[in-house]
Amino acid sequence: xxxxxxxxxxxxxxxxxxxxxxxxxxxxxxxxxxxxxxxxxxxxxxxxxxxxxxxxxxxxxxxxxxxxxxxxxxxxxxxxxxxxxxxxxxxxxxxxxxxxxxxxxxxxxxxxxxxxxxxxxxxxxxxxxxxxxxxxxxxxxxxxxxxxxxxxxxxxxxxxxxxxxxxxxxxxxxxxxxxxxxxxxxxxxxxxxxxxxxxxxxxxxxxxxxxxxxxxxxxxxxxxxxxxxxxxxxxxxxxxxxxxxxxxxxxxxxxxxxxxxxxxxxxxxxxxxxxxxxxxxxxxxxxxxxxxxxxxxxxxxxxxxxxxxxxxxxxxxxxxxxxxxxxxxxxxxxxxxxxxxxxxxxxxxxxxxxxxxxxxxxxxxxxxxxxxxxxxxxxxxxxxxxxxxxxxxxxxxxxxxxxxxx
Length: 406
Hints:
The structure is a single chain. By secondary structure, this protein is of the alpha+beta class. It has a domain at 169-401. Helices cover 18% and strands 30% of the residues. It has 5 helices and 15 strands. Strands 7, 8, 9, 10, 11, 12, 13, 14 and 15 form a 9-stranded mixed sheet that branches. It has a two-stranded antiparallel sheet with strand order 1-2. A two-stranded antiparallel ribbon has the order 3-4. The relative contact order is 0.11. Residues 1-40 have low confidence and may be disordered.
């Protein structure tokens, strides 16, 4: 029995030794592993201490902690704390692109943006006089020409010559200063910054308006607007609007003569003109700008200085001239200038015999103190008056010079 058992054991060992080279041994092993996996399905194989697990939860870019990254950003965005974002690049810049589709600021005309800085480039190429477009002048000094010469629109000094022809004009047909507060607050410029239009002249509207119209109808004073070079009265981007003293020998006439005083004798240029007038959709806009002009009225001459003068209105034109409706002319009249003119007028009337008709209206000067509604120098003392006038223009033509002192 022992011998039989020993033989059986040896036979079994032999069989196992031979079976180690048999391909079926793999199936037995795989089956054993599969059986083991089925028994313990929730056991995670031990990855060992040397395997790195990326940490990208809540991140769309940046280091994953394992030498890789959690994603990349598309320019101009960069990765900031695991999030793609564009950081504006405006250090040392006051204008121009910020690198993120926006800008670092804007420039105020006439300045433009150059290399991130706002600057105005003077436009004086080929110009020897006049404005350089940046608040200065071409040609040095104050931009004027020598005596007897005038600066043309092209910026060239030429021998001074008064005009012999004039472009399309319209003459003032009606003038009235608005009295109603609601009306002038809506149509007149806001000079004191309170959000409403201003017109101190409303205080004397009852006295002044009849005088204005009477003087116009009698032809004692008149004015025309000359639209220099304008062919399109619907849309013209920029032109010069001259304001000239003019009248007729016969009141109501449309052929006008210009007063020589309308032009500066040194430059032959109009004393009063808007350099930045435009027409958009049939609406005239000119100013605001300061003006100083000499006026002659029935023998008396004086200098009128107005600040922030502007003009608006609806314009049309025919071969006969220019028509303007809903016109508004406004500006600021300083007390200092008023006092000068009042003194000149009073002296003239005292020394002239017979006195012109307008001398009888000097009593209106007594109302002047109530007119000053603006404080220009900030010392709490009213030193200027806001003036606003509604007016219309009717077609006319200028035929030459004459009627000086009308």
